[in-house]
UniProtKB/TrEMBL annotation:
PROSITE patterns: RADICAL_SAM (PS51918). This is Fe-S protein related to pyruvate formate-lyase activating enzyme. SUPFAM superfamilies: Radical SAM enzymes (SSF102114). Residues 12-233 form the Radical SAM core domain. InterPro entries: Aldolase_TIM, DUF8061, Elp3/MiaA/NifB-like_rSAM, MJ0021-like, rSAM, rSAM_sf. SMART domains: Elp3 (SM00729). Signal peptide: none annotated. Transmembrane segments: none annotated.
Length: 356
């Protein structure tokens, strides 16, 4: 559901064009529904998509690999590491120009004048404030932001039964001239599942979804009720958008830039390739046999540690003669076809053996 002009950060997000920068896992808010993974939650670590940020080059490289048109800075609370967040924004703007759209998420409790002035000064385009259950905190944040040059919005989860919280935040955003209110479908994650169950929330009746039952109804009921009373954009974002739309489109953008000559890209944007796993022997000897005896093009053969990678059809075609290949290369071999994400960590999605 969208009523009004779709926020630019959202437009780029659903196209898979936003680099996701996890500034830090540190946050003083302690929301019981926080979806951040246990690996990152509370830890002072930084990532650009799945890539750990150890230098400015890591940040820029990841943006280049996905042809990013913007970035979203998230956490944790990026404002607990304000200098880091400012440096990230400055680096991206210097590298990609002023049109590279950057938005940042921050809890209302962290919104303070000095921080906002720094973010404004370095060129932050859009600030998304996570409202507090305390209306006084939200009003104080709105007052600080009233004269900001950035696009402003509140962004919050749709907690079943909390329609009044959404209504209150929508009216406050309208009162202070904010541009939008985003309401996200609440979902079960590894880090919040126990607390959600303790509060007797259930999953929707769908094996493919982790959404919380009643969350969508709460969002749509509240936004419909307040729609005629405010002039700001009202936007409801279902949980499926993150995985089925945003993530899928992002990996498709990345795949065409990271796939090597021997790797193929399937319709979902996953990398598909053949693997000869060398159990004993020298992988270079196997590569030599493939190139010089079996005449596999050299650019289709890639040695990675104990693995020799190649086109998937090459492994398929050699499945019936693996024993001959082992004898010629003096290697013990296992053969696989794998599908993996084109991300920095190259997470394997599917692997199946090829036997002769």
């Amino acid at each position: 559901m969208v009523r009004g002009a779709f926020p630019k950060g959202c437009r780029l997000c659903v196209c898979g064009a936003k680099l996701v920068v996890f500034v830090t896992g540190v946050c003083n808010r302690g929301c019981w529904y926080c979806p951040v993974s246990p690996r990152k939650k509370g830890s002072d670590v930084s990532f650009a998509n799945e890539r750990p940020i150890r230098s400015e080059r890591d940040l820029v490289k990841e943006a280049e690999l996905m042809d990013a048109e913007g970035a979203s800075l998230t956490g944790g609370d990026p404002l607990t590491r304000l200098e880091r967040a400012v440096n990230i924004i400055r680096t991206l703007k210097d590298e990609f120009g002023d049109d590279f759209h950057i938005h940042l998420y921050a809890p209302a409790e962290s919104v303070r004048e000095g921080a906002i002035e720094e973010l404004d000064g370095v060129g932050l385009d859009e600030l998304r404030v996570h409202p507090s259950p305390d209306s006084t905190v939200n009003r104080r944040a709105a007052e600080v932001l009233e004269d900001s040059g950035m696009d402003l919005g509140f962004e919050m989860p749709a907690i079943p039964g909390e329609e009044n919280w959404i209504l209150e935040v929508a009216k406050l955003a309208d009162e202070y001239g904010f541009d939008f209110l985003n309401v996200n479908e609440l979902e079960f994650t590894e880090s919040n599942a126990e607390e959600l169950r303790r509060r007797r929330f259930e999953r929707v009746d769908d094996d493919l979804s982790d959404a919380v039952a009643g969350s969508e109804r709460t969002a749509l009921t509240a936004l419909s009720e307040v729609a005629n009373d405010v002039g700001i954009t009202l936007h409801y974002c279902p949980s499926e958008v993150k995985d089925a739309v945003q993530f899928r489109k992002r990996i498709k953008r990345m795949a065409k830039n990271v796939a090597r000559d021997h790797e193929e890209i399937d319709e979902e944007g996953l990398i598909v390739k053949g693997i000869f796993e060398v159990i004993s022997g020298d992988p270079e000897d196997l590569a030599d046999v493939l190139i010089n005896i079996l005449e596999v093009p050299e650019e289709w053969v890639y040695v990675d540690g104990s693995r020799v990678e190649t086109k998937p059809f090459v492994v398929d075609e050699l499945a019936d003669v693996l024993s001959d290949l082992e004898e010629a290369s003096r290697c013990e071999i296992r053969a696989w076809i794998i599908r993996e994400y084109p991300t920095w960590d190259r997470t394997v999605v599917e692997r199946w053996p090829v036997r002769g």
